[in-house]
Design a protein that fits this description.
The complex is a heterodimer of chains A (about 110) and B (about 110). Chain A has about 110 residues and is mostly beta strands. Chain A has no helices and 11 strands. Chain A starts with a strand and ends with a strand. Chain B is built from no helices and 11 strands. Classes of the chains: A mainly beta (about 110), B mainly beta (about 110).
């Protein structure tokens, strides 16, 4: 079953605009991660934010985490056509030290040149 | 290139048949994870192995089984295949058994006719 739910399901923007994707989850987490998937390809890790962190940056990516609201957002600034992909949030439970990442259904981002 | 190798890339088979998917993790990674991705269910965690031992189990059907060998490669066996088993099967690896960044292979696309 999905833990994270991304919003919106699909997003279409022009090159140069910013793209914001949101993720909500249900249970307590150890960390939350964002992944990118080009159509039919493997997932690529973008960024990991731990439960005691509120914001993290990596290049044009900015991730925020609000554990009180059980939500996270991924901001891609100055988007490029090459950013066109599906973006998934994934959560790691804090109830066990091992285990798996639970993925949401993703946001499909389309960046038009 | 994530360093995770999956074979075969594509597989077409008939209902009732059995297939084996193979995964070689990144050099040095001890954990292997299997995920199933379908349009209706999204990314579903199946099973995790760590250094040859089963560590976590998700929504894996009884018709499916997996193992991790002493050289750390893993195999996912799918038997009595049904149409609904058609999906992308991903393997991912990580250095430890705790859930940090996962490195995904390119997947094996299974089509059951």
């Amino acid at each position: 079953s999905q833990q994270g739910e991304e919003d919106p399901q699909a997003l279409s923007i022009q090159e140069g605009e910013n793209a914001t994707m949101n993720c909500s989850y249900k249970t307590s987490i150890n960390n939350l991660q964002w992944y990118r998937q080009n159509s039919g390809r493997g997932l690529v890790h973008l960024i990991l934010i731990r439960s005691n962190e509120r914001e993290k940056h990596s290049g044009r990516l900015r991730v925020t985490l609000d554990t009180s609201k059980k939500s996270s957002s991924l901001l891609i600034t100055a988007s490029r056509a090459a950013d066109t992909a599906s973006y998934f949030c994934a959560t790691a439970s804090n109830t066990v030290s091992w285990g798996n990442l639970i993925f949401g259904k993703g946001t499909k981002l389309s960046v038009k040149p | 290139d994530s360093g995770v190798t999956q074979t075969p890339k594509h597989l077409i088979t008939a209902t009732g048949q059995r297939v084996t998917l193979r995964c070689s993790p990144r050099s040095g990674d001890l954990s292997v994870y299997w995920y199933q991705q379908s349009l209706d269910q999204g990314l579903q965690f199946l099973i995790q192995y760590y250094n040859g031992e089963e560590r976590a189990k998700g929504n894996i059907l009884e018709r499916f089984s997996a193992q991790q060998f002493p050289d750390l490669h893993s195999e996912l066996n799918l038997s009595s295949l049904e149409l609904g088993d058609s999906a992308l099967y991903f393997c991912a690896s990580s250095p430890t058994d705790t859930v940090g960044e996962l490195f995904f292979g390119e997947g094996s696309r299974l089509t059951v006719l």
